[in-house]
Amino acid sequence: MRWIGLYGDPQPWSIQSNWLSTLLSFLDCEKYPPSLLYLLMTLGPLFLLYPLINKFPVRLVKCFEVFGRVPLFVYVIHIPLLHFLAITLSFIYRMDHDWLLGGFPLLVKPTGYGLNLIEVYFAWMLVILLLYPLSRAYGQKKMVSRKRWHWLL
Length: 153
Description:
The protein is mainly α.
């Protein structure tokens, strides 16, 4: 579908100056507006890797299950958590943080604001570690609540 470019993405891919740039152009699908191509490109590799999950250590699979049981909770909570971390980092790095405290939509970010790739990976791991106990507690509460009200279903 992406190769023929007739459906699914408002920006068609194009041949670039080198093969890597062409590959990246091919893989650059828009998430919004919702696109079947984006869905297939994100879920496709997951389905291909699914048989390997049986080879993962049980503890790792259990960690994935914690997030998988409460996906909406994780999605809703990660947004204010990231915003809080961005404000905290702006204080630590002594960057301008006024644009983060403005109304919606947020003002344009200042030049030079942001993290390098290693810091982004560290922030990603920090967010996952902070979300894990919250997600686990919410999942357990949800399970107890569901058992309590199962007779209504």
